[in-house]
Design goal:
about 230 residues; mainly alpha; globular
Length: about 230
Amino acid sequence: MDNLPLTLLIGFFAGFFGAIPPGPLNVSILRKTLHGQRRDAFKVAFGGAAIDALICGVIGLGLGWALERVVTNRWVRGFLALFLLAYGLKLLFWDLKREEEVERLAAGNNTGGGSGEVAAARRPTSRLPFLTGILQGAANPALVVNWTLLIGFLVGHRLLVPRPVSAGAFALGVGIGVFAWFGLVIELLSTVSDRAGTWVKRSTAFAGFLLVLFGVFFTIRSVSGILGP
């Protein structure tokens, strides 16, 4: 009989610690939290957790080979890499300009300007943070490989039974663990966001720069795969 509580617990710790290494999701969540967009940050985190849980569930059911054919497809990888690149460029050019406008309006408000314009300018521009989390999570080309290796290790040591119920429990645990890590990051950053000062102003440029680097790196790998034999 499957030990579902243990399977769920193993999945939780796998997801929690697996989400710690820096990547596009961590960068986006960090930026949104520092800018006071906690709700959007949680939505991005939920999207990232959902894609990890989905991948683990599919691999646990023994369908990793089908998933690998999709996510390792050169064109799919290229699209996801270009998404990261475009998102980073958006932060560097569009969002930075918007934040400069917010600062200008805030300065005008201090000298008698209208607070309505400042409030309008501060409205978040992200409309689909959940989808952003899914795409940024899926953009990591090593995601399927890493989960496949871990699940193979767990199955080999009889810590995970490759059955639908066990695979579902493990995937659920992974999703909860990933979301728990991001939630912890959001809560910790929320306590210092008001005192972050200059760092908050620079976080958009920092996040945009890192996402562009991730995008360029993954794009080069994808293009070399498309042009290669």
